């Protein structure tokens, strides 16, 4: 009687249903923005729904204790199902099925491990700059850029961007590596990917109060007094005839800098500067002295990948054992 009840409870159909429910919950993470500020959720969803999402952990599903608990529960359930199927019967076909179930356990375990301990951090650095990483398991490590170069096609588009970097782990071990697009750096469970590139413009802002240097990247403004600021757009290859701020090519063949004086976020006046050029805007003198490329890197920590890899190997082994006899029989029928 007990065995009958247990066999009904420990059923793979129930496990598959459990897995579908867990997958549906995980899918919510693609519809609900994850790991945003409280202000973000109250603004986009309202006070009541925003508070509900934050209270239930739906704003950080993959790291919430209840989601990880459900994943662990699924793994335990699958193991018990596999052990239940092995009781009293042991043949190659059955062993193959059990190995398939265990591979699914490892797959879920690897995904949970990544959700619980995985970390991702994006950094943008110019040559000689160092970033101290702070996210999760990446905290305590540093990335320094020794050199960054961009290769160009003849049509002015980027063919490859390459970063020579130095990575220092938590123990203080320092290693150097060259990375490029599709060729990341690997250090244990840490990978550093070449993601993008951009431009940092340098110059000076002079007024009666003195002269200040600036180093700005795309989307960054230079703050001034009384709600004013300077916005800038770097144009790598400016078309003098069309006067469009859309660059002709990505390669910096004729670099210009568009500078706009803003008051309370609204443009008041604008100037266009060639490299090494100066201009007055309002009561300010603006200079565009230089530009340098910066590299955009993505640093990821993922200790679940080896577990997932082993799960795929087990799945292949399980499939082989599960269907080996059927394949042999079919071959025998053909030869017969």
UniProtKB/TrEMBL annotation:
Residues 12-87, 95-326 form the ResB-like domain. GO terms for biological process: cytochrome complex assembly. One of its GO terms (cellular component) is membrane. The chain crosses the membrane at residues 61-82, 94-116, 304-324. It is found in: Membrane. It is a multi-pass membrane protein. Keywords: Cytochrome c-type biogenesis, Membrane, Transmembrane, Transmembrane helix. It comes from the Bacteria. It holds the Pfam family ResB. This is Cytochrome c biogenesis protein. It comes from Peptococcus niger.
């Amino acid at each position: 009687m007990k065995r009958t009840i247990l066999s009904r409870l420990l059923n793979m159909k129930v496990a598959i249903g459990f897995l579908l429910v867990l997958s549906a919950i995980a899918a919510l993470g693609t519809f609900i923005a994850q790991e945003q500020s409280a202000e973000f959720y109250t603004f986009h969803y309202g006070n009541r729904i925003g508070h509900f999402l934050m209270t239930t952990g739906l704003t950080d599903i993959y790291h919430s204790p209840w989601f990880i608990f459900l994943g662990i529960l699924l793994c335990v359930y699958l193991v018990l199902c596999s052990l239940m199927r092995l009781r009293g019967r042991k043949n190659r076909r059955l062993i193959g099925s059990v190995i398939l179930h265990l591979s699914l356990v490892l797959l879920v375990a690897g995904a949970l491990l990544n959700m619980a301990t995985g970390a991702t951090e994006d950094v943008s650095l110019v040559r000689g700059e160092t970033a101290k990483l702070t996210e999760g398991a990446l905290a305590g490590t540093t990335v320094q850029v020794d050199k960054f170069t961009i290769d160009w096609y003849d049509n002015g588009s980027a063919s490859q961007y390459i970063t020579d970097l130095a990575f220092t782990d938590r123990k203080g071990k320092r290693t150097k590596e060259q990375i490029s697009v599709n060729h990341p750096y690997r250090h244990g469970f840490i990978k550093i990917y070449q993601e993008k590139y951009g431009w940092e413009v340098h110059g000076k802002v002079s007024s009666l109060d003195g002269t200040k240097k600036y180093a700005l990247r795309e989307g960054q403004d230079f703050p001034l007094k009384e709600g004013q600021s300077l916005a800038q757009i770097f144009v790598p290859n400016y078309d003098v005839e069309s006067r469009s701020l859309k660059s002709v090519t990505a390669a910096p063949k004729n670099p210009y800098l568009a500078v706009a004086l803003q008051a309370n976020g609204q443009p008041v006046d604008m100037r266009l500067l060639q490299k090494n050029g100066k201009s007055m805007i309002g009561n300010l003198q603006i200079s565009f002295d230089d530009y340098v490329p910066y590299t955009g890197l993505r640093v990821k920590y993922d200790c679940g990948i080896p577990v997932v890899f082993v799960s795929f190997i087990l799945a292949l082994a399980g499939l082989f054992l599960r269907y080996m006899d059927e394949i042999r029989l079919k071959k025998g029928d053909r030869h017969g």
